[in-house]
Amino acid sequence: MAQADDMTETGNGTAEERRAGSRVRSVVDRWRRDPGIWRRGTVVSVSALLLALLMVLHRHIPNDIGNTGSLIETFLPWFGLFVPVLAGLALLRRSATALIAVLVPAIVWANLFGGLVTDKNGPGGDLTVVTHNVNADNPDPEGTARAVAGSGADVLALVELKPGMVPVYEAALADAYPHHSVRGTVGVWSRYPLGDSRPVDIRMGWTRAMRTTVAAPDGPVAVYVAHLPSVRVKLKAGFTANQRDRSADQLGQAIAQEPERRVILLGDLNGTMNDRSLNAVTSQLRSTQGAAGDGMGFSWPAAFPMARIDQILVRGVEPVASWSLPRTDSDHLPIAARVTF
């Protein structure tokens, strides 16, 4: 029995496919005959171009008023969400001009962040490092310690250590890490011997940064651990990051004077690699996430990560993989990296 025409299949495809193609041609024909297709969508077009300019020129946005530039740079990757919104508005307005304009911020965003969305993790590595802001008010420090120890890290950095909880972390990590050093609210646990451990003054009035030398099998590496001051977004004051910025400059000076060729910085910098206020640090070191990461690697807040303010930065070693670890009872995600000497 012959089938209905809409169920037949020919060399040109099914009837359903032909109908879909016909609908597309119909829309294109209507747009082609529409005299306003190039005149409509001015607001969308201008908005798209302004978005592109903001992303291209973000380093020229002044910090004089409320550290606006740093605030924008902290969440710069999220500005890409405006691209599909503008594209939808361009389609709604049936504006060819706006659609073309939307391509500009799309290309800019892809140029800035497209390389981060892919998985660049590679095999191998001589040293695995993990850093975690454990949260001073963590309700389960022992469980958090076991979770990060389970990552298999050779070197583990913990920041925001509450003094009364340090013995809990020491006991929970003792079997996996025979060597450790704690200075103030930051600490390093290592499978390999540590030497020349000392605090680093970042002008906070108490110790929130340190350095140590890890005697790794393939050679010594200077490991810095830092927890830079917190930042806040306030209605009247804007992005209050001045103390963070001063501490970053001081940390950058300490790293610049480091005699070891191999350097790894671990910790919560309360800023992203895009934030120009961290330039004293980021200009000297590479981000493992940027070089060899899996996706954006956002680490905060743990419930819905929106920014990578926890960092693993290196000099004199080659990143081969970088990733985020599962959530603990902290408000930050732990992050990890493998490097080769």
Describe the model.
The chain has 341 residues and is an alpha+beta fold. The chain folds into 2 domains: 34-116, no CATH class; 127-340, Endonuclease/exonuclease/phosphatase (Deoxyribonuclease I, Chain A, 4-Layer Sandwich). It contains 10 helices and 16 strands. It has helices spanning 15-33, 42-56, 68-74, 82-93, 96-113, 141-149, 166-173, 242-256, 279-282, 288-292; strands spanning 9-10, 13-14, 127-133, 155-159, 179-183, 186-190, 194-199, 209-216, 219-227, 232-234, 238-240, 263-268, 286-287, 310-315, 318-324, 335-340. Strands 5-6-4-3-16-15 form a 6-stranded mixed beta sheet. Strands 7-8-9-12-14-13 form a 6-stranded mixed beta sheet. Strand 3 (127-133), helix 6 and strand 4 form a beta-alpha-beta unit. Helix 2 runs parallel beside helix 5 (96-113) and helix 6 (141-149) runs parallel beside helix 7. The radius of gyration is 26 Å and the shape is elongated. The relative contact order is 0.13. Residues 1-10 have low confidence and may be disordered.
Q: Report low-confidence residues grouped into runs of 5 or more.
A: 1-10
CATH class of the largest domain: Alpha Beta
Shape: elongated
CATH topology assignment of the largest domain: Deoxyribonuclease I, Chain A
CATH superfamily of the largest domain: Endonuclease/exonuclease/phosphatase
How much of the sequence lies in strands comes to 15-25%
CATH architecture of the largest domain: 4-Layer Sandwich
Distance between the termini: 73 Å
Number of continuous helical runs: 10
